[in-house]
Specification:
two-stranded antiparallel ribbon, binds heme C, single chain, elongated, two-stranded antiparallel sheet, mainly alpha, Cytochrome Bc1 Complex, Chain D, domain 2
């Protein structure tokens, strides 16, 4: 009679499978606090215990029918630790005598084919793989487990959050530390389109706010164009409350203003001014003579 798998081992296997299934469908370990999970665990354990008890009954019954010799052998076998038997049977080799029984009826050049038993460790892995595949297929088809788009979305959000966290603690950019960089133009354009375009119009050609592409400037508190824009956007205009102090009010960060100043520098210095004939606003203020 074969040695049976102890109930504890069965229960352990059940726990592992339940964990894998729940993890794949819930996708985090929050189920560990759920009564449904623990309910399933308890019910499964009870079933495993009942299964074990029925097995015991059948085993007793069979035992009665054994010969004295078989009984003795059974008792010796039963005393061997289960894990050791499992380990040994996983790597068991067929004996030469058994080989004769599994000889398949064809061969070539004296080389014969044997119908060998597959090693237990291999079979174990195989069945685990099959079970895992089934669970995985269901999880993949009916939940968003393993969905690259969802994972991308989550990671993207986590990164944005960590950038925001970093910027909270990173030193603010001020008019002293702000620097022009061509790399900031694209981001500056976005800031402009969100916050400034309503008054300064497309491309900064001017409307309620002055034309930002020409060389006429009402406000010239700084010597260079870049710092001048930073100054006006940070502090607002002393003459006209329509141009609010975006920086001082906290509407824009120093970084945003550094970006938008780069964009305005770009449209003012690296592109042709948008003239009245092209739909731009007429120059306001006095011609500027910016330092480099
Ligand atoms: C509500 C309308 C309005 C919005 C929005 C606005 N501005 Fe202005 N802006 C003005 C007005 C009006 C002036 C002219 C101020 C003055 O007469 O001194 C001005 C002046 C300026 C000047 C100085 C121009 C000069 O000739 O002195 C700059 C630079 C400027 N704005 C940039 C921006 C930027 C960048 C934004 C977006 C972050 C922005 N503005 C948003 C209305 C606005």
């Amino acid at each position: 009679m074969k040695q049976r798998t102890p109930v504890v081992v069965n229960i352990l296997i059940i726990l592992v499978i339940l964990f894998v299934v729940y993890y794949m469908f819930v996708q985090n370990t929050s189920f560990l606090a759920s009564p449904f999970f623990w309910g399933t665990v308890v019910i499964s354990c009870i079933l495993a215990l009942i299964h074990g008890a029925i097995g015991d009954l059948i085993e007793n019954n069979k035992f009665q029918k054994l010969t004295a010799e078989e009984k003795a052998e059974y008792l010796v076998n039963k005393k061997r630790p289960y894990l050791r038997t499992l380990w040994e049977s996983a790597f068991k080799k067929q004996s030469a005598k058994e080989e004769k029984d599994i000889l398949i009826d064809h061969g070539f050049d004296g080389i014969m084919e044997l119908d060998n038993q597959l090693p237990k460790w291999w079979l174990g892995l195989f069945w685990f793989g099959v079970a895992y595949c089934i669970v995985y297929l269901f999880a993949y088809a009916f939940t968003d487990f393993g969905d690259p788009l969802k994972e991308y979305d989550e990671e993207y959000k986590a990164q944005i959050a960590s950038i925001a966290e970093y910027e909270k603690t990173a030193p603010q950019i001020t008019i002293e530390t702000a620097e022009y960089s061509a790399d900031n133009i694209a981001e500056g354009e976005i800031v402009f389109k969100t916050n400034c375009v309503s008054c300064h119009m497309d491309g900064g050609k001017g409307g309620i706010g002055p034309n930002l592409t020409d060389n006429a400037w009402i406000n010239q508190p700084e010597k260079t164009l870049f710092k001048n824009v930073f100054h006006v956007v940070w502090n607002g205009s002393p003459n006209n409350p329509a141009m609010v102090a975006f920086g001082k009010n906290g509407q824009l960060t120093g970084k945003d203003i550094q970006n938008v100043a780069a964009y305005i520098y770009h449209i003012n210095q690296e592109q042709k001014p948008i003239t009245v004939a092209e739909g731009g606003a007429a120059p306001q203020g006095t011609p500027a003579n910016w330092e480099k």
